[in-house]
Amino acid sequence: MKKISLYCSLLAILVLDACKTENYVWENWSYTAVPLVAVNTAKSALPTIATANTSFFDMGAANLASQEFEYTLKWEGFGKTEVKSIDVYLGFVKAPATGNPAYPIVVSQPGGIYPSVTQFPLPSRVASTDKLFMTVTDFPKVITATAGQMATFTGTDLTKVVQNDYFIFKFILTMTDGRRIEGYQENVCDEARGEVGDCRVGVRFRRK
Description:
The protein has helices at 2-18, 147-154, and strands at 34-39, 54-58, 68-76, 83-93, 124-125, 131-136, 141-146, 166-175, 180-181, 183-184, 200-206. It is mainly beta.
């Protein structure tokens, strides 16, 4: 019976394969790497949690322009691929009227590890409003910038920012084999679910 069952299974596979009439893009998959970040929570002007990949500027403070945002950037190739460089893009986003994540950050339960919702919109893709901030070739790389520096770079008037506006960094990876990885979906980077990658990181404006 086992031999007959195995024969029938192989026959079914051959028949199904013979009936295939179209090739799909997703069938030509390959391994890639993912970016990883670690926010320096000690430099956040307001309390935050490391797993949120989010820092805060206190927009009510007199030293707003000199407040710093800092994170460490590296990558993980899972032993399957290598990264040559990461292009780091920076953009400024005006907060929508509704739908912004709660503050203080709500932590998921059970577990108490990850934020209950994504802190920045997904999917995360470099937009026309994002500008190339730097290209990193040596890892890990500590990236530090003040609110004033990011405002100057993005053409943002710090006197006009409002609650929940934010600066956001996004990443494009170039593999050693020349492939350029530009798009990341929810199942790659979602801090609310502890996904494998960190395709963006940002700092929000809030008041104490």
